[in-house]
Amino acid sequence: NLYQGLLGLPRAEQIALTASAMAMLADLARQHGLLLYLESLAWTPLNRLSDQVELIERAGRDNLRLVVDYWHCYASGDTPDDVARLDSNLIYGVHICDSLASTGGIPNEAVLRDVPTGKGVLDLKAWTDAVKSTGYRGWWSCELFCKRQQQDDSFAVAGALHALMSDLVPKD
User: Fold this and answer.
1) Is there a contact between 122 and 74 (Cβ–Cβ < 8 Å)?
2) Neighbours of 40 (CB within 10 A)
């Protein structure tokens, strides 16, 4: 008897209801000059990049974009090739992050993301090159979910992440 959201509904209905809600939110945001971005989570029914593009198109609002999050993409089954096919105008931001190997099923974020960024199974250069290939020129963010790094010397961790990001996304 817990909240189920859109689980169990046919995909077409999930898309229609979500796109309608996104359109309403985008209309509210527009009143305040805001842009909204969608970051579909890996454990949700509409978690693929193609789902996000379809939702944005169906919502039909010009103030909706998406975030490319390497971990959510990977855990949802998307690949760098899927990212490379995106229209750069749809991308609002990028989350550079890593993962341990996933064995499928509903991903356990606390387990899979407990790895230093750059030390997991994701080829961060391939993911980053895929984003760059779209012509995207926006903000990049490094996400840190590794418990050990969260407890380590924050200056050392930040320095290492800055160096990694500088290698992946050099300033123009």
Assistant:
1) yes
2) 22
Residue 63, class by beta-carbon neighbours within 10 Å (0-12 exposed, 13-18 middle, 19+ buried)?
middle
Residue with tokens 């356990």: 108
DSSP single-letter state for residue 35: -
Q: Which residues of 74-172 form beta strands (DSSP E)?
A: 91-96, 139-142
Q: In what order do the strands lie in the sheet with 91-96?
A: 36-38, 64-69, 91-96, 139-142
3-state secondary structure (DSSP) of residue 4: coil
Q: Are 57 and 22 in contact (CB under 8 A)?
A: no
> What pairing do the DSSP bridges indicate for beta strands 91-96 and 139-142?
parallel
pTM beyond 0.90, yes or no: yes
Residues 6+ away with beta carbon under 8 Å from 16: 58
In tens, the pLDDT along 151-167 reads 999 999 999 999 999 99
Amino acid at 165: M
